[in-house]
Backbone:
């Protein structure tokens, strides 16, 4: 009887640990698009469009490759707008839409890694995801680089 309880205790510990490690990782589809997304945010925070078009095209390709319906159907069009942007204002508007859709995916899939931070700029009325708590505002760049607050952690 005592042995049975020990085995049951081991089972529950392993089940709990497995659940915790699973909760710490991103869904593979979401994990694949984060590097280009984060790089675009950095470029926009640096007041640059350098590389944004190719990063948006890469991200769109990754989104379209995912056939399970994981990503919102509007995301490829948002990424097209971002890839075709010829000025920072247009790129930032498209980046806002991309950010909104990714934040919704993080929420919908209950992602909890502790490594992704939603930052919100009240002036731009926009949010974005970054991997550190030091604000680097992609919507205003050098004009208001530090404007915003961490409002959520994933």
Residues:
């Amino acid at each position: 009887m005592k042995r049975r309880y020990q085995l049951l205790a081991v089972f529950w510990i392993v089940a709990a640990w497995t659940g915790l490690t699973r909760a710490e990782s991103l869904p593979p589809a979401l994990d694949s698009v984060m590097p280009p997304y984060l790089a675009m945010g950095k470029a926009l925070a640096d007041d640059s469009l350098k590389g944004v078009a190719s990063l948006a095209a890469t991200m769109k390709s990754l989104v379209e490759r995912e056939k399970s319906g994981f990503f919102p159907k509007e995301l490829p069009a948002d990424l097209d707008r971002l890839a075709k942007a010829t000025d920072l204002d247009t790129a930032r508007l498209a980046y806002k839409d991309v950010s909104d859709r990714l934040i919704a995916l993080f929420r919908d899939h209950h992602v909890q890694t502790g490594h992704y931070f939603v930052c919100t700029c009240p002036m731009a009325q926009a949010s974005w995801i970054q991997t550190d708590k030091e604000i680097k505002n992609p919507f205003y760049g050098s004009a208001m680089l530090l404007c915003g607050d961490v409002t959520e952690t994933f």
Summary: The first helix runs from residue 2 to 23. Confidence is low (pLDDT under 50) at residues 4-23. Residues 81 and 94 are 6 Å apart (CA to CA). The chain has five helices and three strands.
